[in-house]
Amino acid sequence: MQPTMQQLDIFADSRDVALRNAVLEALERRDAASARTAMEGLAAEYPCDSALHAMTVLVQELEGGSNTPFADHAALAAARRHIEDEVVPAVRRVLPAQTVCAWLAPCWSSLAQRAAGLAFRGAEAPNDAGSHAGNHAAPLWLLAGDWAAAGDAVETIESWWRIPAPLAWMTEVRYRVGGLDAAWPLLAELAWLASGRFAALLHELGDASLDALRRRFDAEFPGSGEVDDYAWFPAWLLMVKPALAGRLAEARVQRDQAASRAFALLGEILRREHEGDQHELINLRQQLSRLHEHLFKAYMATRKVQHR
């Protein structure tokens, strides 16, 4: 009798797997009706299955789609919280990791389309990387992976390059579409305007060469060790990667930001060095010293190395 019992056990074990897989296959296809039928079959035979709650959340998400525009920002915020707090964990709970982003993309696209009529409302602190300014179509399009739509949504925001959140969104758009070379000018502007958002975006992008530069900056820059130090990243970059000077020169200098003025000064210093104008070079170096003594010392250290 022992072999027969083993066969029965295997059959029993495989039955719940088969039922569960039927639900998951329908969910991956985003087939709400088939997923509902398969899930009810699983629940009937295995009412305590640990995956049922997550499956229910996803089936209800597929069944409850809406095209109705959001009436206000509060409605968008509530819908976004539902996706973030309930749908995302459920997807991660039951679907393969490599399919998570693709499965969620239509959810984010739907929210973005419904949010298209909502104006940007983003009063925030300059370095607030987690503000509620995200209740706008642009970051939702980014989550959906639709870079063109995200860029178009940012363009609807007046003077977006002067506001941390949309500047960060557009910087990501430029990176996703054209790579790091295309993103350098906006990365510099973001560092000056909102170093916290700059640091958060670097983490989000996960670019190997950019991360290597950030680690080198963390090790070499004589700052306070706080996130505000990243405001000086573009100026430091001119010293260690002068080949980027031409690309970074496209960044809009913000005269009310000391780090931006230092960047402009270093750019002018590099040009004067090339031209050999020693008198003006001395004056510019003095200005840099007054603006940031430690940055000036770091700059002079690179010159001493070059002239040994």
Report on the architecture of this protein:
With 308 residues, the chain is an all-alpha fold. The protein has a domain at 1-64. 71% of the residues lie in helices and 0% in strands. It has 15 helices and no strands. The protein has helices at residues 2-28, 32-45, 52-63, 73-94, 100-114, 137-144, 147-155, 164-193, 195-205, 208-220, 233-240, 245-248, 258-275, 278-291, 293-306. Helix 5 runs antiparallel to helix 6 (137-144), helix 7 (147-155) crosses helix 8 and helix 14 (278-291) packs across helix 15 (293-306). It is elongated, with a radius of gyration of 26 Å. It starts with a helix and ends with a helix. Mean pLDDT is 89; it is low at 1-12 and 125-131.
